[in-house]
Amino acid sequence: MEYILKTTGLCKQYKNFMALNGLTMNVPKGSIYGFIGKNGAGKTTLIRLVCGLQNPTEGGYELYGIKNTDKSILKSRRRIGAVIETPSIYTEMTAVENLKQQYRILGLPSFDGIDEILKLVGLEDTGKKKAKNFSLGMRQRLGIAVSLCGNPDFLVLDEPINGLDPQGIVEIRELILRLNKERKITVLISSHILDELAKLATYFGFIDKGRIVREMSAEELEAVCRKCMRLNVTDTTVLAKVLDDMQLEYTIIDDKHADVYAKPNITQLSLALAKDNCEVLTVEEHDESLESFYLSMVGGADHA
Ligand code: ATP
């Protein structure tokens, strides 16, 4: 797999406090990487480091294969578009004026592409309306539009759905999906709401107390959180053979336990197993919901 961002043992210390404590993460090219953790886990700190706003105390990272200590890291960073904490927009300006200003800052030779960006984020009809009169969702989309001005292929969004109403959340989600699919932009999106990220991320990194506790694909997360029947039998080799014959999907956990992703007819199953001297000891429904999985990853006590 090709990675846009790879960090190794990244640390950031503020006086006696370790905001990042040996963080190792890998953002696959083309993914929507859901960076998930409680408030204060270190998400913004990681983003600030990668964008070059702060330096790590220890460890390092590679952006497009370039080490953070290499001079050409600046070139790699130019490929990033970022909205960190609050969108950096001028509230006294219209949407078009904001983008023109960003074009000037980036030293772009013409204003070509501004209409297209505004259309992409759904702000093409805002005319003379100043950003201060925009809804929170519109401001967030304008922030994303500004970050798209340099034509980045890696977009970093820090809690972009924070405080948005349901309509605003849907709009941001659809925009991110569009940018990822149509423009092939890799997206790193941080949030403390797994439920929201689960609807769009293709890859997940769970962060707790400054380190990644687990990275997994959306398929792996779905499998973990899927409802299933957990069977305790005397021999899972026999069980596997019988389940294959019944064409049921399953995962063998150990020699006595397996998860079956459908409700099998237990009488039929028991009879088939008995023929090969295998006994069903217990059957229980197993449902690892997203939320309980999240809490098992990042701890629940001070979950925000
Ligand atoms: P949130 O969603 O609340 O922003 P986060 O996961 O993004 O959470 P960070 O903003 O990265 O968390 O902060 C991680 C920890 O580092 C927090 O406990 C924060 O108080 C601390 N921290 C961040 N910046 C500084 C700083 N400049 N000086 C001291 N401590 C800091």
Short description:
With 304 residues, the chain is α/β, with parallel strands linked by helices. Helix content is 34%, strand content 28%.
Structure characterization notes:
This protein is of the alpha/beta class. It has two domains: 3-223, P-loop containing nucleotide triphosphate hydrolases (Rossmann fold, 3-Layer(aba) Sandwich); 226-287, Alpha-Beta Plaits (2-Layer Sandwich), CATH 3.30.70. 34% of the residues lie in helices and 28% in strands. The chain contains eleven helices and 15 strands. The chain has helices at 43-50, 73-77, 95-106, 114-120, 136-147, 166-182, 194-198, 218-225, 236-245, 266-275, 290-298; strands spanning 3-14, 17-23, 26-28, 32-36, 58-63, 66-67, 80-83, 154-158, 186-191, 203-208, 211-217, 227-233, 250-252, 257-260, 280-287. The strands form three sheets. The protein has a six-stranded mixed beta sheet, with helices on both faces. Strands 1, 2, 3, 5 and 6 form a five-stranded antiparallel beta sheet that branches. The chain has a four-stranded antiparallel beta sheet with strand order 13-14-12-15, covered by helices on one side. β1 (3-14) and β2 form a beta hairpin. The longest helix is centred in the middle third of the chain and has 17 residues, at 166-182. Bound molecules: adenosine-5'-triphosphate. Adenosine-5'-triphosphate binds at residues 14, 17, 19, 37, 39-45, 159, 192.
